């Protein structure tokens, strides 16, 4: 279930207000093209993917790690084992099939992942914060993320922007993004293109075509470049032609809020 974030609200010209989490989710959803096959992670990626399905991308085929294909959940799942996924899917296959045939067989166009930490080459940590043997926080772990990051045609990553999340050096590399930059991913012979965008609550970062280092290419309305740089754990590069993310549309906000409200009611007392 997505959280309701209380960081400063921005105001639409129509006087509608939105949170930074809503802006992030909407910006991420817009990157989903209609008709794509999409391997979805739980949490923020699931919210964005389902918002896309409920708005501009109704023919998107959502696939979850538990083997559900063509899933159309009415509420956001708590986990990959949530019965909502199986009950609203077109079919359910075994985990071996979903990974060996569908994912590693090159049949999934887009992977949508969250992260606890990323570095400047969009490598992901979802294992531990701190030393592996004596961590400060033990996280959920890899799950299917390493295979998704390696094998999907493209990958999107979404997380909240802070120096604790966007770090110079990962505490643990769970899933490979662009590895050490440059052509290092190709040398690993990963079949997919890797991360094509990182969407945060402050803006959008995309990899440089040559170095693969993440570059700030868009800031969300009301956010300054200085804010983004200060919240990044490495010297962040900024695109020469920096864009401003379009404001949320009233329809996008309404659909997202309806989805989150249904989810909250459905999962009340289950966490």
- Strands, total number: 16
State the strand order across the main sheet.
Answer: 4-3-7-12-13-14-15-16
Report Rg. Answer: 18 Å
Biggest beta sheet attributes? 8 strands, mixed
Mean pLDDT: 92
Q: Percentage of helical residues?
A: 25-40%
Terminal-residue CA separation? 9 Å
Which residue ranges are poorly predicted, with pLDDT under 50 across at least 5 consecutive positions?
A: 1-9
Strand-and-helix sequence, N→C?
A: EEHEHEEHEHEEEEEHEHEEEHEH
- The total of helices stands at 8
The share of residues in extended strands comes to 15-25%
State the secondary-structure class.
alpha/beta
The best one-word shape is globular
Multimeric state of these chains?
single chain
Key features?
single chain, 271 residues, eight-stranded mixed β-sheet
Describe the structure.
The protein is built from eight helices and 16 strands. By secondary structure, it is of the alpha/beta class. An eight-stranded mixed sheet has the order 4-3-7-12-13-14-15-16, with helices on both faces. Strands 1-2 form a two-stranded antiparallel ribbon. A two-stranded antiparallel sheet has the order 5-6. Helix 1 packs across helix 2. The protein starts with 9 loop residues before the first strand and ends with a helix. The protein is globular, with a radius of gyration of 18 Å.
TL;DR?
The chain has 271 residues and is of the alpha/beta class.
Helix/strand layout:
Elements (H helix, E strand, L loop, with lengths): L9 E2 L5 E2 L1 H10 L7 E4 L3 H11 L6 E4 L3 E2 L13 H5 L3 E2 L2 H9 L6 E5 L2 E2 L5 E2 L2 E2 L7 E2 L6 H7 L2 E5 L25 H4 L7 E5 L3 E5 L6 E6 L5 H6 L6 E8 L5 H18 L4
Parallel strand pairs: 3-4, 3-7, 7-12, 12-13, 15-16
Antiparallel strand pairs: 1-2, 5-6, 8-9, 10-11, 13-14, 14-15
């Amino acid at each position: 279930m997505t959280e309701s974030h209380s960081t400063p609200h921005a105001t639409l010209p129509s006087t509608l207000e939105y949170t930074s989490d809503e802006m992030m989710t909407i910006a991420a959803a817009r990157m989903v093209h209609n008709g794509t096959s999409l391997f979805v992670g739980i949490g923020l990626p699931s919210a964005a993917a389902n918002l896309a399905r409920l708005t501009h991308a109704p023919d998107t085929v959502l696939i979850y790690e538990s083997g559900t294909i063509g899933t159309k959940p009415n509420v956001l799942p708590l986990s990959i084992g949530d019965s909502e996924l199986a009950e609203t899917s077109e079919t359910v296959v075994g985990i071996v099939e979903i990974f060996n045939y569908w994912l590693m067989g090159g049949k999934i166009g887009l992977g949508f992942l969250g992260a606890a930490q990323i570095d400047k080459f969009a490598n992901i940590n979802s294992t531990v914060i701190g030393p592996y043997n004596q961590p400060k926080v033990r996280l959920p772990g890899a799950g299917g993320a390493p295979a998704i990051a390696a094998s999907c045609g493209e990958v999107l990553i979404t997380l909240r922007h802070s120096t604790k999340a966007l770090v110079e050096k990962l505490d643990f590399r769970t899933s490979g993004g662009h590895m050490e930059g440059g052509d290092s991913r190709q040398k690993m012979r990963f079949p997919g293109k890797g991360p094509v965008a990182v969407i945060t609550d402050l803006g959008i970062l995309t990899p440089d075509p040559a170095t693969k280092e993440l570059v700030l290419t868009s800031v969300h309305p009301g956010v300054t470049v200085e804010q983004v740089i200060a919240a990044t754990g490495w010297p962040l590069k900024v695109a020469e032609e920096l864009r401003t993310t379009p404001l949320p549309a009233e329809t996008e906000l309404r659909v997202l809020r309806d989805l989150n409200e249904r989810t909250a009611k459905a999962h009340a007392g289950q966490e």
